[in-house]
Design brief:
The chain is of the alpha+beta class. It has 5 helices and 5 strands; from the N terminus they run βαββαββααα. The relative contact order is 0.09.
Length: 184
Amino acid sequence: MSQSTRTLIIRGMHCVGCEAIIQSAVKKLPGIDAVHADYTGDSVKVSFDDDFLSMDAIIACIESKGYKIEGETSSNSSSPILRTSSDSRSPRFLRRRIKQIAYVALALLGIGFILWLDSWFMNHVDMPKLGRDISYGLLILVGFLTSFHCVGMCGPLILGYTAKDTTSGYKVYFMALEKPSLIR
């Protein structure tokens, strides 16, 4: 009986559901002792018996579920053994890369436009002075615009904390009850 523990580097896992899909599929294979998928680390750690099961069968099982194996490390080796990918120059890969570059360029153009618009606005429009004769409409407008700032800045922070807590085992809908420090 020859025990092996390997960690596979996987692409395509996005949530805890993806972890469950991989874990349940791999656990069904004969000779599996333990399997732990981690979508935040893009890895799956598998302990198995070499006499009953080969690494190729585990990889084929995971790939049959729609995930891509990027490489693997054994328990004796700390550096990853990357698989050579023949599709790094495929049209799909290049299309995705061009789309990513276009999004970044569009975001930079948007920021530049907002900065230009701000400087033009300050030089060409007389802004009302804030004082006791300010209208309720302007106050409502300022409050409305401030709400976008709050949602845009604090929203991702809250989502980040929530995602971190769910990977720690907390249920999102019971988080306030389980962690009373969040209520303060």
